[in-house]
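Morning run. Coffee first, then this:
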Amino acid sequence: MKKKYIVLAACGFTIGFQINAVFVALQGQTFFSPRSQGTDAARDIVGWHEAINPVDKQGWYHAGAITPVYERSFRLNQIAEYFCGTRLLGISGSEVATRKDTDLLADYFGLSPKFQSVVTIKPQMQNIIADMAWYSGYKNFFISVHAPITWTKAVVDLEENPFDRACSTPFPADYMDFQSVVAPYTCFSAAVKGTRSYGQVERLMSGKIGAPAAKWGCADLHINVGSYAITNERGRFGIMARLVVPTGNRPTSSFLFEPIVGNGKHVELGFGITGGSLLWEQDGEQRLDALIDANVMHFFKTHQKRSFDLIGTGTWQRVGNWGSRYILAKKFNADGNYSGVTLPLINVTTVPVDIRITIQVDMVIMLAYTYKELGIDLGYDGWIRSKEHISCPPFPEKTYALKGIQNVTGFGELINTTQSKATINGNLLSEQALVVDMPSPVFIRQRDLNVYSAEAPLAYSHKIFCHIYKNWYQECPVQANLGMGAFVEFEGQLPNCVQTNRSSLSQWGIWLKGGVSYS
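And here it is:
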């Protein structure tokens, strides 16, 4: 009997937790911009820092390395909160009398007006990388090139608990078309994949959720040219010019959480410093060095597609009308009359814009211990990227207006009724007359698009890494090295007063690194 009470109490706690979670105010961004797979100063330096920083070389010297890497995100709830402010979403229709104020309106997604469910959001990203690097030097001058060949996958797993699929309850006549319309979906996780149109409503074309998507390519070409001002047995210091040539893919916002190879097609230009100092040595067999590498880059303007929510009012002006891009909208003709086409607003608020980023810094501080042919590298990698700046998004005037819960037809003809104050949470269908625009239509203007909703905010992360390796043929002109390493990277946290205060990715990874050097 006691065991039974414990089980009941645990179930009650779980249900209570879920109920509280779906009452959280929804907020977040429409686009997530992860750290580029090619930007990793820790991976660049480990294992071969002896080969690329030789002492007293009078002629040419060269080194090459390849680093296979596997990376996987964790703390999945943090990514979910970046997009939605919570990892649990309540979904309910416009005929559910007990629906919560924070529920998403099921009607907007092609779900029955009596549909009810709770969805757990689990976004995840993984990368497989083959980072190929080449380094050549002559006396104190050097040049290096990195080309990280990358396969990346981003997926949002949706675990859904439907309370009522309401398969037998269609949309009433006039709501989505002249006749009643059977809801095309019976679960939210299928609806957000955007595979079907219904009545006068077009299918979802952008911001789709749940379908796994993968991309592969070169995560940009990194070129460094520099010189050492100091190089001797006790230490070294050099400075370099850095150029990143974009070779990855350009974001299209077809998916809410989309795979991006590289930095999103930005040309980067900046500089880097590299240095090291001998801390301790014994018997000519053991030594401990401290190394530092820091890269400072500027991202030039590029074109990308981004999805925009609408602005809010009052104190919510900056946060905006969260999720409004998924509200249904009516399309009007040149005469200002409804054209018979209804669509998710995101289909027309996903537009090309110019993106630029002021600065990115990637810095490594590392201890390198060597004993004969064996070496251990242990260090910290700090990465920070300033917020994006987005140009004014284009939008056609006097063409689109929010449908909300208003009808598309009445008395056997198309009607112009709109609901300009509609939110993603919607209203009860019985409140149509209370929330209709008087007069209708009220058009969406270009200045109603919320630029902040699509901007990636300031992002930073902390990485701890370790690499163990072995050198061969140290007395020969040709040397080889092989090692393995791992890292754990944690997302940075912005002040709690800032909306969406977790804006980078937590991930772990493992790698092998092998290379040769000769002179």
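The mean pLDDT is 91. Good start to the day.
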